[in-house]
Protein 1
Amino acid sequence: MSKATHSPLRSIAAHAILLTYTVIALFPVFVIIINSFKSKKAIFGAPLSLPLGDAFSLIGYETVFKRGDFLLYFQNSLMVTVASLVLVLLFGAMAAFALSEYRFRLNTLTGLYLALGIMIPIRLGTVAILQLMVASGLVNTLWALILVYTAQGLPLSIFILSEFMRTVSDDLKNAGRIDGMSEYRIFFRLVLPLVRPAMATVAVFTMIPIWNDLWFPLILAPSEATKTVTLGAQMFIGQFQTDWNGVLSALALAILPVLILYLIFSRQLIRGITSGAVK
Amino acid sequence: MATVDIAPVKKPFRWHILVFLAPAALIYTAVMIFPLISTLYQAFFSQKWEFVGFGNFMQLFTDPRLSASFWNALINNVWFFIIHMLVQNPIGILLAALLSNPRLRLRGFYRTVFFIPTILSFVIVGFVWKLILSPTWGVTSGLLKSVGLGWLFQPWLGKEEYALTTLALISNWQFIGIPMMLIYAALLSIPDEVLEAAECDGITGWSQFWKIQLPLVLPAIGIVSILTFVGNFNAFDLVYAAQGAQAGPNFSTDLLGTLLYRTFFGYQLQLGDRAMGSTVAAVMFLIILAGVCVYLFGIQTRLRRYQF
């Protein structure tokens, strides 16, 4: 190819910009994590040095584990996220299959109706959602959150999954029908395994906003027993504002699980976003 | 029935379609669509369930106390959106353009790193930046001093004139991964032949980017813009995490989302107001709907899409 795109100067310039942005993206996270392992004196004396020697201290983590019930919050978040995810994937795939596989009256209309929620945020219905949860006695239960997040996740998952299901070969499904498989078996045995990569993409997309949401836990389930990690961290930090060790450790604890999960699944996530594009 | 159905093949009712659709449709309708409609409906009733027509809206737009905070939040929100469009999306495009060069080393590393802030929760992002910009801790002022720019430091989040812009930039930092990824994906989908043809015609480097690649990824930029719009006009978490429900200092960082929260739940001495909360939500709904319509009918249909 031409020289212009290959010159080392251009490549150095590109790396300079990209490395600068790498520092900008990582610096805040790095500062929080190193300082969470330091004594109070070291946090203020030398905020940018590593937690070595005298500076090292776990006092912040002790406060967090003593004063906050993070294990419970973590468990709540995990239950809400996993349950919503299972419901979104199962119901979303079923609906996507119905829309992409069968021709019936109202097919297009149902598809459009279910797609409305991609653009309109569920948050705008909060007033009535709270009334609904109060009326059904679900306030301060994890079920309230699971239902809301399922409803929130369904539109996008149906949209993405039905695009993928259109690509599953008809011959395969018809062969199944000739063999006498029921429509349900065709869906669960033939189609679902084939769209697994798309399901993984949808899973990641659905999971991040649920795990990080603050609005609905704050409104629908703020009780001590149902707090999620996000809400728990928010409240803990609010209470212990002046305890820098505690705050920094709580933040580090909130960052680490997400960061580890992300590093494990980042390939999947990025492939999902760029799917179709990477040939 | 009396009428005789002489359709050649009378298909039995296909129950399985209903079974496949029902769970999703039921949950979606009951927990999302019904509450949305109900909230819009309640915007036309007073706190005591008397029908007031557009009374609530008139009050929100003109009542001296209420309208002041509404217009403040709306203007703040517009500024919040402008900063995202001017800073987040251009930087996202730049990073995507640099990453899309197939000969670039460490692409995977950069991609992974740039997306890290996006996966963090608002609570983490809000507090992390609050600590880093805090004058008590002095990380930022220390850094600026070390490069001789110490005089530049201000407690940005604590000053009325800077707080909103600072928060918008923090939000940019968090979400830059999304425009970057979507535009990166669009850039990758441009076939090599197109770029090679351009190179044969002597169009390379930046001029290739401006003349060939950018026009081809305009649809992706359109999607990014509407996602930014919807996300910004419904933002709440970051302001709540960094500045509290009061959106301080002196409401200078108040957005429609935080206004909705305070109106519906009340704060300090003011009691929560269901009717006014619904009205604020209805206005937000209309703004978002208007934005989506402008995109769908005004922008998307005019963008030329190329089939390769």
Protein 2
Amino acid sequence: MEVLNGKGVCDGIAIGRISFLKQHHAVVQRTRVEDPAAEQARFEQARDKAAQELSQLYRKALREVGETNAGIFDIHRMMLEDEDYNESVENLIHTQRVNAEYAVAVTSDNFADMFSSMDSEYMRARAQDVRDVSNRLIRLLSGSAGNGVPEAAAEAESEGRILCADDLTPSETVQLDKTHVLAFVTRHGSANSHTAILARTMGIPAVVGVKDLTDAWDGQMAAVDGSQGIVYMEPDRETTTALLVRQEEAEKYRARLRALKGKENRTRDGRTVQLYANIGAPEDIGAALFNDAGGIGLFRSEFLYLRSDDYPSELTQYAAYRKILESMAGKKVIIRTLDIGADKQIGYFGLGKEENPALGYRAIRICLTRPDIFKTQLRALYRASVCGNLAIMFPMITSLKEVLQIREIIAQVKAELTAEGFRYADHVEIGIMIETPAAALISDRLAPEVDFFSVGTNDLIQYTLACDRQNPLLEPFCDTHHEAILRLIGMATEAAHRHGKWIGICGELGSDTSLTEQWLRMGIDELSVSPSQILRVREKIRSITVE
Amino acid sequence: MKEFKYVIRDEVGIHARPAGLLVKEAQRFSSAVQIHRGDRTADGKKLFALMALGVKCGDEVTVQCQGEDEDEAARALQVFFRDKL
């Protein structure tokens, strides 16, 4: 047994085999093809090759594990021949002029989603088969190494794995199929990196910064202790037993939290606070509701832009917002407008490289200088506003001028919609993120112009302490409880309340239960946290006496 | 057009394996094959569409065959359902 130390960023215990992510093939790139007919021919070749591979696998499995288990490869082969699947790929190649890999990936997602949404558990599990067979095609198309035959590959699909990688980019973490991931372990990364935040969102045990991690461990047994930040390689029986006991305790803890569903977020002495969820895609709404979120305190709208190959149209956005609002059935949904920049790139925006992206051309700065993009989003939001309880929030505010400009654009958008005969809700709350020291310092000037503040603690910490949160070397210097941070939040709270406005916290500090009591004393009105953290924070709130 | 009704007995319904076999069987004939469940219909020659129909144990399906060889197709499929589902 070998014991490796890292930083635990999401609690939980996982025991299983390691799968080392080969990152070059993790993401399918979209490219434009000049000759769709040739691209289609490539697709057909790959399909023939995939069918051959699957026949070989079928025969091999038939010999070794029998007909019942081998059947899955037969099904995969039939999936390859499905008319609708092939039509979808071919249509994408011809009408969108995309490469075959991309066409397959999109088709795969659509069909997998169809299965995932079915009411039978068995059928939902078939989404995995669609992905499996599509990945085989993509691998063949991109000519990557490996012949795809080994049993290990088939085995990996059926049992969960501990996913290891040097590091995971936000897009990789998002795009990974999480159903079979028992835990994340990365060589790089810090507690505040996107990987860590996403792991917590998904409730998957995670350890980052494991310096001694190597891909030589691919396929070996390991045990991951997310709360202690330890990875045991080839754990001995004693260790495994101890961890299993803790795993059981953790299950009991989860059961205790489950019992808090439907209970109020009320302190012992009767103070209540709103507890909302932070989410980044419509499919997270389920987790938010499942964990009893009172509303959505931060809906990151980037998904619309990330999942599109061009600026999403007003109608596309409207449909998405409408669906979100309707799924939340009257509960408040705070949608944050586009928040991208040089560190969160989207190809078609054509943003240049920057020396210092955190301090660069991003978020509201892009929106205010490219009003076409901004107005499209606002029009879609206002049109959707009649379908539920919408609030809109603007990121990266540093000055009063920005807020006034935003309000002017909103007035234009409303006037245009009225002129065109579109309806919108009478009162849509407008809020701003307090995530720069500047915004906190002038919060008394900003408060009269908005309905609410929401503190983005991640950026507020980074900008106040001058610490890049992705840089693990800075962790000793990045004291998230630094007095400067607490004072800035205190100032903003005082300013908001003085003007009769409410204030929430939607950053990571919102779920830091060692600060919950302080937030309540400060007068914070709302905490918005990852869905998986809601009940834990509720438990904390219910244990506190404020006065 | 030939049509017959059948109540599914297989515990998992028309799951992947029999769906695949059913598609293969249907494809042997030139006739169009439609499978109806409630108010939804799937082309019996398309695997994903058939699976998406989500036919469960106890569901009644109506199978319709239309075309030159509809008699043979309906007969063959009736046997198939009885044997496999």
